[in-house]
Amino acid sequence: MKKHEILTNITVQKLIFGGKGLALLADGKKVIITGGAIPGAVVSIRVLKIKKNYIEAQVVATEKKSPLEKEIPENWQLYGGCKWLPIPYEEQLKIKSEQVEEAFRDLKKIQPKIPFSPIIASPDSEHYRNKLEFSWGKYISKKENIHDEYRFGFHVAGVFDRIENCRYCVLADDTINAIFQEIDALARKSDFPTYDPKRQDGFWRHLVVRKSEFHKQIMLIFSVNTNYENTQDALGYIKEITKHLTKKFTEIVSVYIFHNPGKADIVTGESEKIFGKDFITERLLGMDFDIQPKSFFQVNSKCAKLLYRTVIEQFLHKNGVLLDLYAGTGTIGMLLSKSFEEVYSVELVESASKDSSINARKNNISNMHFVNAKVEDFAKEFLEAGNTADSLVIDPPRSGMHPKAIPTLLKFDVREIVYVSCNPATLARDLGDFLKASYEIKNVVPVDMFPHTHHIETVVHLLKK
User: Fold this and answer.
1) Domain end: 227, 256, 284, which one?
2) What is the pTM of this model?
3) Fewest 10 Å CB contacts: which of 43, 277, 330, 379?
4) Does residue 87 belong to any structural domain of this protein?
5) Residue 307 CB contacts under 8 Å (≥ 6 apart), including other chains
6) Is 303 a catalytic residue?
7) Annotated active-site residue in 82, 166, 169, 422
8) 36-61 pLDDT per residue, tens
């Protein structure tokens, strides 16, 4: 076997976490497959890497469709954010449940019986996202004989300077689809070019659309290159079309422009509000949360209610001091604030802590303390000051908890912990340390916040033995 060799008649056995397929060669060697593998499909693959115990490969052709694969409507497109669309939703839930249980396999050496609850499905499997980021750019490829100077949609997977046109995004609702289609038409009519990251020239860069499910408010964020030679005319054009957009779509209550003259092709730079309110407001479980242009907020509002209700239901002891760690914008801590005497919301990102404080005041919460710090530093200083805690809620980034954080948190000797994770692998890694320190898993609840993607949230309840 050689690198770049094409192998045929390969049957995809299952999907593993990360959305990759798993197959076996005739000699029993594992194959990790990228590029849209569906369980049961027979595919041709190109060998990318050869390892001692497995190879990595990419699908180049489907020889036989999977029996699971469903037909999708003609106007639906498969982008990097919805690769599982051809898989029936019930099957997606089954796959994700199995992946979470598989991630916990090694933990059974410490705790042989781990209770898993049924996965919680998203109320909507399509049209659920309250935030979409579209990109302007080009698609120039001599190999494919394509030279398109204007594209508006999503990045081609793995290619930073090519954009795939989006006609309709199944993860967005009809209003968001109508808005981005209207903006696409208006941008195409203008004389201003799309941004080229290679030449660092052009004007249009990104469009972010944010929506509140409860209040039905929409925020638009234009990201543009202000080093473009005709920037002032182009900015004037955005302000002019904003009048048209806000008249046609009355849900739009806030419009910003982000001035980004830099190389980083992300939504960043100095912000300028050109219409309406500073924020939009979402309501979850009876509380209102203001969402600024850069605020973190769960992208599936309906399922977020189920996630947070699940977190709240895990706590058996609702009193004393709660530490809300890796708190983000403090949503979990605020929703639990009525059940505890004091809540310490600990978050490293300063803007997120600021958002937390603003939203706490908005909801008349007076028993929360907002700390802008690393979790491991806060925990050490909190202990050294003679403070104690009774319960922890932990919601770290995909990389999991910092190695220095867990030993310090164990010194609190809290009665119970609820851990919320978006990565089953790092979740299982961190839980191992808690299990070795006399904690026991009482419940594992997968929550499908992201239908048609490989992502999964998991809520774990730990009790001190």
Assistant:
1) 284
2) 0.92
3) 277
4) no
5) 120, 298, 420, 447, 449, 457, 459
6) no
7) 422
8) 789 999 999 999 999 988 999 999 99
